[in-house]
Amino acid sequence: MKTKIITLISLFISFSSFSQDCTFYHDGSDLVGQWEMNFNSGEDWSGNNNHGSLSNTEPTSSRCNDLPEMALYFNGNNSHMDIPSSNYPQGNGDVSLSFWFLTESLQKQTLLFIGSFIDSNFIKIYIDNSNLGFQVKSRNWITNWSCPLNQWNHITFTKKDTVVKLFINGFQVDSTTIPALSIQDQSIKFGYDSTGEFFKGKLDQAKIYKYCLPDYMVWIKYLNVSQVSNREIDSDVIKLYPNPTKDFFIVESVSEVLIWDSFGRAVNFIRNQNQISVMGWQKGIYVVRCGNQIKKLVVE
What we know:
- The protein is mostly beta strands.
- It folds into two domains: 2-9 and 232-299, Immunoglobulin-like; 22-223, Jelly Rolls (Sandwich).
- It is 7% helix and 43% strand.
- It has helices at residues 2-13, 215-223; strands spanning 31-35, 53-55, 58-60, 71-75, 80-83, 95-103, 109-116, 121-128, 131-136, 139-146, 153-160, 163-168, 171-177, 188-190, 200-209, 239-241, 248-252, 256-261, 266-271, 275-277, 284-290, 293-299.
- The strands form four sheets. Strands 1, 3, 4, 6, 11, 12, 13 and 15 form an eight-stranded antiparallel sheet that branches. The chain has a seven-stranded antiparallel sheet with strand order 2-5-14-7-8-9-10, with no helix packed on it. The chain has a four-stranded antiparallel sheet with strand order 19-18-21-22, covered by helices on one side.
- Strand 7 (109-116) and strand 8 (121-128) form a beta hairpin.
- The longest helix is centred in the first third of the chain and has 12 residues, at 2-13.
- The chain is globular, with a radius of gyration of 20 Å.
- The N and C termini lie close together (10 Å).
């Protein structure tokens, strides 16, 4: 039991301990775009035809078992992907931005740029001296998360009105408030901005949502669980019992439950069922995602 408890704790300390499905699922209609970035392509899979034009990028291995040509490599000098116009929400609309990245440099470089410097209405995600940073209009925000070299990480940026949050590998690491935006220029740039801050590294599986993902959905999207409703937010009053259990457990006030074992492997996805059988499960500790809460379940 001691070994299993240590394993569970390590899951929460090491974000990458959770296993992810590498399939690139279509994420519904409320998207600006989703770009798989495989085979040196900027194709938009959302159906919105926001295809990217590539310049000096190369196909490269992805995070998924090092598969060849399943991500894009940016050389840090003149590589970029441009979407000159899109259906990105104008004004101060709520959005979420997510993608996988691996950086080979800690110098100042731009990962994603949306909008225009000309009218100062833009969102910029960048790396500066090893720290991840954001600039939204005049608000320049250096986060407290330091980027590791040559390691895949998943980033999600959510914006609801003037509150923005940063998530790394599904977990929130920072948040702040920003000035209200008035986006008019709907262009999107991956790997650079117009000042010449080119990214050196790899990008993969980018998505832009036309709404703010709830916090718990960010974690689920990181794990790439395709079956879960994007919009449903469950009650904060969630009870799980009996715990420990030998035959079943009950979850109150929630309609969707996701369960992983202590090694990060998906065990079950339950919808609209509050009594869940554990018959046939191995004894040990499980991670249960109940709506927007994570709970520990012990099966004896």
